Every structure is written in structure tokens, then in C-alpha cells.
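The instructor's notes for this session suggest beginning with a concrete chain rather than abstract definitions. Hand out the sequence below and ask the class to guess, before any prediction is shown, which regions might be ordered.
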Amino acid sequence: MIAQKEECFEYLTTFYRDHVTKDRQIRASTSEELCDLIVKVSAQFQNTMIVVDGLDEISEDRADITRFLRGLNDHSGSVKTLFASRPEVDIGHVLEDFEEISIAAMSSDLRLYVGSEIERRTKQRKLNITDRDLKEHIMKTLIEGADGM
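After discussion, reveal the predicted structure:
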């Protein structure tokens, strides 16, 4: 969609030129610059949805990054954000006024997936497990360890 909007393409081109020199050296952008770009681009559309998956996998400054991403929601409601994460205290604190939806896979779904992966990898000769009890033990361990992921 962005490529179809001339204004968006101009914003991205300017951003690129501001952050990549002629000799291809990259100047890191600040969170304010990124936010400004997202706001400018999203203003060209009636609605913008930003999806962030794996928020819990951020290793440094996770709460600060979560605050930054949270700030992308605008008061008009044209920018909406969805955050996918395992439950973490710091993330929960920053997003405490966001609606929370808990999603977990059913163990039967996980069992089907793990079973099909074991079979697929056995056929591709990436796994060589002939002991049925061992296959069952591997499946049980993986499913219990997934904890609804």
C-alpha cells in the first residue's frame, strides 16, 4: 500500500537519505525519528494496524521499547496496535490499560503438530527414531514444555 501513495514513498526516501550516506554508511535512527516516520506514513491512511509479535523476546530496554510502541496509538483511533507476548511483569505494567486476550494452543493441536513434524523429519531422514515409546516420550515432553504456545 505504501508504494501506491506518493507521499509515503517521499517520506521513506527522505528517511533513507537521512540515514544512509553516499558511501553506504548507516546512521542509526532514534526512536523519535522512527515514531515520526510511522506517524507521517500512517496519516496517509484511514486506518493503520501495527502488530508486534514477540515483545517478550526483547532483551534490552524492554519496558522503554514497550512504552515507545504503546505511544504509536493515536487518540483519533486511526492507529491501532496489537502486542503479542508471553505474560511478563514489566510488559504488563506498561500495557496495564490495554485489553488483554489470552491465547493458548490446545494440547490436541500441539500433539497433531508435533506428531506430524516427527513424521516429516523421519521421512526426510533428519530423525531416526524407530522406538515408538521414545517417540511418545519426545512428543509428551515437547507438548508439556510448550505450555500452550
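Then share the key points. The first strand starts at residue 48 and ends at 53. Residues 53 and 84 are 5 Å apart (CA to CA).
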